[in-house]
Design brief:
The protein is of the alpha/beta class and 249 residues long. 41% of the residues lie in helices and 20% in strands. Strands 3-2-1-4-5-7-6 form a 7-stranded mixed sheet, with helices on both faces. Helix 2 runs parallel beside helix 10.
Length: 249
C-alpha cells in the first residue's frame, strides 16, 4: 500500500466497521485451535502482512495467553505496529513470499488482504505451509471479483481480486487440507458497488476512513447478521471479500 494508506489505517482500523468484522471472522476461524490443554505451549500466531498491528491488538485482547509475531513489507507499517503492539510482539520487515522464520514455527498464520498484493501468491502459500506446524491453520482474506476493481484497489496497490475457486485452488496447491471458503461483506455489497462504480469521484483514494456514527452502526448491524449466518454453518455466495481457512496435514 501507499504510505499515506498506512497512516490512515493506524488511525481508523480499531474502530472502522470493516476491520471489526474482518478481525471477528479471523477470531471465529481460530476457534478449533483456541482451546489448549493445561500445560501446553503458548499458541504461536503469525500475522503475515500485519499492517499497523490492528489484528494483533484485537486478537491479543481476546487471547492474552497467545504469542504473536508479525511481518510487513513496509518499514513504516512495522514501525507503527511496534509502537502500537509493544516490544513483546516480534515485528519484522519482510515479504509474505520470504518469511524470516524457521520451518514449523507457528500454529496459526493469518494473512488478511495481503495475498492480493503479491505477483506470486503460490510462493506465499508455500511459505505459509513451511512455517506452520503439522495441524496448523492458515487464514486468508482477499478482495473479490476483478470486475469490482476501483480507485480503492489503485490506492491499496492491489494486484489481483480473487474468486472463491481461486482461493481454494491456491490453498490446495499449497498442500493444505480441510479447506473452507466463503464470501463475506455480502449484505453491504450493493452499497459498495454503487460507491465504487457509480458515485466515484476524482478525489477518492481508498474506502479506509472514518464514517459518521449512524453509517458505522448500520454496517455493524449488517455484519452481525452475516456473522450469525456463518456461525450457524452457512456460507455467503457473494460479497466483496473472499475468506479462506485451511489446515496443514
Amino acid at each position: 500500500m501507499q504510505s499515506d494508506e498506512y497512516l490512515k489505517l493506524a488511525e481508523v482500523e480499531d474502530q472502522m466497521w470493516y476491520f471489526r468484522s474482518l478481525h471477528a471472522h479471523v477470531d471465529r476461524a481460530l476457534g478449533p485451535v483456541a482451546a489448549r490443554p493445561a500445560g501446553a505451549p503458548r499458541l504461536q500466531v503469525l500475522d503475515a502482512g500485519c499492517g499497523t498491528g490492528g489484528l494483533i491488538l484485537r486478537l491479543r485482547a481476546a487471547h492474552p495467553e497467545w504469542q504473536f509475531a508479525g511481518i510487513d513489507f513496509m518499514p513504516l507499517a512495522c514501525e507503527l505496529a511496534r509502537q502500537r503492539c509493544g516490544p513483546e510482539v516480534d515485528i519484522r520487515v519482510a515479504s509474505i513470499t520470504e518469511l524470516p522464520f524457521p520451518d514449523q514455527s507457528f500454529d496459526v498464520v493469518v494473512s488478511a488482504d495481503v495475498v492480493c498484493q503479491v505477483d506470486n501468491p503460490e510462493v506465499a502459500a508455500a511459505e505459509f505451509f513451511r512455517v506452520l506446524r503439522p495441524g496448523g491453520i492458515v487464514v486468508i482474506n482477499v478482495p473479490a471479483y476483478l470486475w469490482m476493481w476501483s480507485y480503492h484497489d489503485d490506492s491499496c496497490e492491489t494486484k489481483h481480486r480473487y474468486t472463491r475457486p481461486e482461493i481454494d485452488a491456491l490453498l490446495r496447491g499449497g498442500g493444505f487440507g480441510e479447506r473452507r471458503t466463503t464470501h463475506w461483506n455480502a449484505l453491504p455489497f450493493p452499497v459498495v458497488w454503487a460507491k465504487r462504480k457509480l458515485f466515484r469521484t476524482s478525489r477518492d483514494t481508498s474506502d479506509v476512513k472514518r464514517y459518521p456514527a449512524p453509517i458505522e452502526a448500520g454496517f455493524n448491524g449488517l455484519m452481525a447478521l452475516e456473522h450469525a449466518w456463518l456461525r450457524a454453518g452457512g456460507r455467503w455466495a457473494w460479497g466483496t471479500s473472499v475468506f479462506g481457512v485451511a489446515r496443514k496435514p
